[in-house]
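Lab notebook page, bench 4
Experiment: in silico fold of construct C2
Operator: M.H.
Input chain length: 270 residues
Purpose: comparison with the prior construct
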Amino acid sequence: MMIYTLSALAVIGFSIFYLFFYRNWRRERRLQQPFPGHWQKMLGAQVPVYNKLPPELRNQLEQHVQLFLAEKSFYGCDGFEVDDTVRVTIAGHACLLIVARDFSDFDEVSSILVYPDAYHVREVESDGIVVSESSQIRAGEASSRGQVVLAWAECEEGAINPSGHHNVILHEFAHQLDYLDGTADGAPPLSGEQARQWQETMTRAYEDLRHSLRHHRKPWLDPYGATEPAEFFAVLTEAFFQRPDHLITEQPAVYKALCEFYRLDPRWGE
């Protein structure tokens, strides 16, 4: 009887450890390994902002990249070969979003599918008894099931142009942060006063963007951000990390809200 009791307690203890402590234990073990020197060189070349980061954030980015590459699965599509350059480039830009946040923000991300270039997607829509099918060309997409799809040509464009208007990796992984509360609605998980201020600030800025487009004025943000709130947040994230000076000039309240969410100011060294 004592043997059965001890066995049962051992099973319960192991189950508790696995469910609540194993992941952190495994990550701590992983981070005891040195960050490979050739990955540092790749980050410096493929994620240029890495070279501008303060030492503590540079170290944090390396740790997040180390965990990202250990835990996420990469798949090449249409014959594309995923090598270390592809993996480190995607991981580096994705982890830039959480460089001052906890890596657990990406716990639900499981796989990254990489196409060589923009890819075709069939869309089926039903309106009552009428079913229509269309073909779309996409550079990337994110799903609530933890899957991210990227076109490598677009990833490269964002990597070599760190102050440009677009970065598909930042865009799609911003959607993954948006999904943290279960749905992509342009409002990542927030609470209390921060949630209220976010809603108020972002609603005002979103309507301002749509108003500019309706009146044929030059918008302060990529017009794609006016599509829906989820795209607004993703496009804002691109602007926040790639064109912070522009964003703070055009929308200081929005910039402040993003600083609070991402827990950093991307005007590195200023």
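Observations: The chain is about 55% helix and 15% strand. The chain has a mean pLDDT of 90.
Next step: discuss at group meeting.
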